[in-house]
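ok new one. same drill as before - structure tokens go in, u give me an amino acid for every spot. 224 of them this time. try not to just spam alanines like last time pls lmao
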């Protein structure tokens, strides 16, 4: 099902298709907005894509808190501009991953989030976080999972010489980058591509896929 069909799909030979396994879930924008927590480590462009979709009425949500682990990262600058509440939970401060995740859970529970999106969170998460938001913790990864899990998925795809790559939004499970897939978008890998050009093409699709996938998941949650 080609769910995206605006002209920007066709930039640079791009023809992305969205193939969500949740195709039969009708998306509904009715009902109270879900209260979203977002986690980011760097630039924050996916975080901003969520905020833009909320503002445009494409995502029935309110981003109630952004948490970053790197003080001064791009996501913080974006949150300030967008006037979205944000806080730093610096992984260097906490003695292990579980303590860091406890802090995340505490922060998100304090603002009563319904779901949490890892939008470029570059730390491995533990059962502490996964269990606290079971079935409601989403991650975006820059490959067509199950291919190229883990670090530098774009580099892995180039190294493998694949013709098609893309991005995946999935529920987070204890196995790294392996939880149930909500939606994927595919992009071609061109012969002329380097890391930067392929990453940019995937990023463009991420910004479209992530809000769509979150809305898809939210619609399913609202149906019980
Ligand atoms: C995105 O490409 C996202 O898929 C990736 O980090 C980037 C963050 O970009 N996430 C992972 O690799 C997680 N394994 P952004 O900060 O501009 O949103």
């Amino acid at each position: 099902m080609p769910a995206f069909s605006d002209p920007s799909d066709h930039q640079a030979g791009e023809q992305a298709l969205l193939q969500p396994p949740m195709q039969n879930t009708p998306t509904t924008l009715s009902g109270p907005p879900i209260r979203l927590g977002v986690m980011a480590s760097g630039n924050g462009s996916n975080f901003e894509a969520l905020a833009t979709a909320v503002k445009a009425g494409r995502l029935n949500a309110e981003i109630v808190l952004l948490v970053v682990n790197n003080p001064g990262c791009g996501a913080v600058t974006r949150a300030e501009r967008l006037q979205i509440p944000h806080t730093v939970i610096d992984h260097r401060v906490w003695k292990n991953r579980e303590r860091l995740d406890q802090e995340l859970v505490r922060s998100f529970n304090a603002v009563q989030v319904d779901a949490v999106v890892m939008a470029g969170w570059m730390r491995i998460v533990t059962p502490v976080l996964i269990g606290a938001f079971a079935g409601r913790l989403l991650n975006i990864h820059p490959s067509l999972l199950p291919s190229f899990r883990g670090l530098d998925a774009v580099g892995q795809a180039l190294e493998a010489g694949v013709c098609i790559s893309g991005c995946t939004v999935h529920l987070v499970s204890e196995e790294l980058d392996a939880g149930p897939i909500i939606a994927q978008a595919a992009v071609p890998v061109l012969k002329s591509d380097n890391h930067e050009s392929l990453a940019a093409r995937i990023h463009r699709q991420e910004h479209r896929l992530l809000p769509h996938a979150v809305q898809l998941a939210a619609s399913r949650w609202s149906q019980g």
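The pocket of glycinamide ribonucleotide is lined by residues 40, 42-46, 119-120, 140-142, 153, 167, 203, 206 (CB under 6 Å). and btw Confidence is low (pLDDT under 50) at residues 1-9.
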